[in-house]
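QA checklist item 7 of 12: single-chain prediction sanity check.
[x] sequence parsed
[x] length recorded as 126
[x] structure emitted
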Amino acid sequence: MMYLNQTNGALKIDDLQITPKSLKNEFKKYSYKEYKNGDYTIYSFCDMENGESTLSLMFKNEKLFSINIGVGKKYVFPHYRITNEEKNMLYKRLRLIGGGRSYNWGCVEMSEDSKGGIISISIKYN
């Protein structure tokens, strides 16, 4: 189960504890795919919550910048196209974690790239 602490922005999902002050080296013991783009590094966790969710942590230099949460490998949706079912699933999760608003530590919102066919919940930290 996923839990977002709305007071401080900490996210708990499976055995991951993520806070706005998390640094890259805190996640070295976990299994993830790593991608780099300039000053940014992305750690992608493909099998969270028994396949219900994917999770991407984006770091700028060493500091956590944002988190993206998508539907997991348990679900098969077409590539490069956002379906109503996928969108509804993510909006339901967004409501469950108290998203769709700004906080003193950052914001939680839906992120949609209609050209790329990608939709996710985005948690951005100040």
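[x] summary fact logged: The first strand starts at residue 2 and ends at 4.
[ ] second reviewer sign-off
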